[in-house]
Amino acid sequence: MRLSSLADYAVVMMTAAARHCGGLARVNATGLAQETGVPLPTAQKLVSRLSSAGLIESTRGTGGGFRLSRPPATITLADIIEAVEGPIALTNCVDTSHQECALDGSCRVKPHWPVVNRAVRDALAGVTLTQLATQAPLPLAGGVGGGPVRSTPAFDIPSPNPSRKREGEQVL
Amino acid sequence: MRLSSLADYAVVMMTAAARHCGGLARVNATGLAQETGVPLPTAQKLVSRLSSAGLIESTRGTGGGFRLSRPPATITLADIIEAVEGPIALTNCVDTSHQECALDGSCRVKPHWPVVNRAVRDALAGVTLTQLATQAPLPLAGGVGGGPVRSTPAFDIPSPNPSRKREGEQVL
DNA sequence: GCCAATCGGAACGATATAGTCCGATTTGAG
DNA sequence: CTCAAATCGGACTATATCGTTCCGATTGGC
Questions:
Q1: A116 and A90 in contact (C-beta within 8 Å)?
Q2: Cβ separation B118–A152 shorter than 8 A
Q3: Is the distance from CB of A129 to CB of A14 less than 8 angstroms?
Q4: What is the nearest CA distance from B61 to chain A, expressed in angstroms?
Q5: Does B16 sit within 8 Å of A163, measured CB to CB?
Q6: For a pLDDT cut of 70, what percent of chain A falls above it?
Q7: Is the CB of B65 under 7 A from strand D?
Q8: How confident is the model over A156-162, as a mean pLDDT?
Q9: % chain B with pLDDT above 90
Q10: Which residue, among A100, A32, A152, A77, has the nearest Cα to B126 in the 3D structure?
């Protein structure tokens, strides 16, 4: 349930690009890497992925670079993540139909996964680049709730989780 | 952005346990593995994780097994995922304080991650074992993204409804 | 026409994961 | 009370994906 580092870096780079020129001027991967701190080769790889996905327009040659293909308000977190990691799919059975897990027919929860997957994707699709470029972190008001300034409830489901033994992972 | 296979199997096993005895009787890992199709060693590993997290109560010795510690309506997908994978954290900077992100101070999107992370977690916390144990899934068979598919919250927890995201707005 | 800077893709290495095995503990029966 | 069986619990190994790096193709400027 963790985002890949590539996607994380892609979000940072896209946000930086949106903040810099609003997606109108061209910036190169080198300058953006120096600014954001992302390693240059990784930044180049991300630029390739993002351009392949159609999120940015790349210009080759001397003085080239890239710019956002769409206004920042129309680019969401889900777009960036899908551009880097592929389609958002919590399980294999949601993404491609040809992916068959061993459970297959006896899996009773398979019909439920698309619903959950869509809910998660909607949560990510509700965050736009414009929101991310803002300094003050808005309380997720713009797109996710559908409402104006709906304060997200604190989510108080009685799940005490008393004996949490594994805080991180099996770090030996 | 994909769920680990262990978490997927854990959800299947927990759902099967909830469907079988409603969390009242004891079942062993062997029988559940045979029923769900999960490999037995993997099922044993998952039982260990789930019992460590406090989701199930294990009884050792001959004729032992495990049963759900809480009613199925109070166990959510987020609980199961956190029991297997650890805390739900899209990025490293959200989870623990030991963020080793190279961007660190220059990261402008870091303040936004907790909000997004909570939104995703809420989406997972809104699905209970009772919902997953239901045969008839939520209305998805008709089509994804086409119409306003509304999930009927017939099995929701009596506690505050965890901010259901907008339903059926983004095409998958 | 030449050079230089950039994007694009491919290969290598590393980390984390998935799966499997064996041992310790406990309980029921004899 | 002893034995035996079944269970949980942790550790090891193999695999796969991810992250990083490097090199080539392309294009614009001079």
A1: yes
A2: yes
A3: yes
A4: 22
A5: no
A6: 71
A7: yes
A8: 36
A9: 34
A10: A152
| pLDDT, mean of each 10-residue run, chain B (172 residues) | 91 89 74 88 90 89 85 93 92 72 75 92 93 70 38 36 36 41
Identify the pLDDT of residue B82.
93
For B25-65, the pLDDT digits (tens) are 778 888 888 888 888 989 989 999 999 899 998 888 887 88
The b-or-e profile of A102-120 (16+ CB within 10 A means b, else e) is: ebeeebbbbbbbbbbbbbb
Where do the domains of chain B lie?
A: 5-133
A45 touches strand D (CB under 7 A): yes
Amino acid symbol at B99: Q
CB atoms inside a 10 Å sphere around CB B3 = 24
**Given CB atoms, is A108 within the 8 Å cutoff of chain B?**
yes
Residue B100: predicted pLDDT? 67
CA angle B72, B74, B77 (to 5 degrees): 80
Half-sphere exposure of B27 (CA within 13 A, CB side): 26
User: Would you call A162 an interface residue with chain B, using a CB distance cutoff of 8 Å?
Assistant: yes
Question: CA-to-CA distance for B16 and B39, rounded, in angstroms?
Answer: 15
List the single best residue of B2, B5, B134 to mutate versus A (max A Cβ within 10 A).
Answer: B2
Which token pair is A147?
Answer: 């409402």
Neighbours of A168 (CB within 10 A): 10
In one-letter notation, the amino acid at residue A36 is T
CB-based contacts of B11, cutoff 8 Å, min separation 6 = A109, B77, B80, B81, B132
Q: Do B8 and A118 touch (CB under 8 A)?
A: no
A5-133, what's its fold?
Arc Repressor Mutant, subunit A (1.10.10)
Say if residues A82 and A97 touch (Cβ distance below 8 Å).
Answer: no
Q: What is the DSSP letter of B164?
A: P
Tell me if chain A has a CB within 8 Å of the CB of B150.
no
Q: Which two tokens stand for residue B142?
A: 């008709």
CA A137 to chain centre: 17
According to DSSP, residue A112 is labeled: G
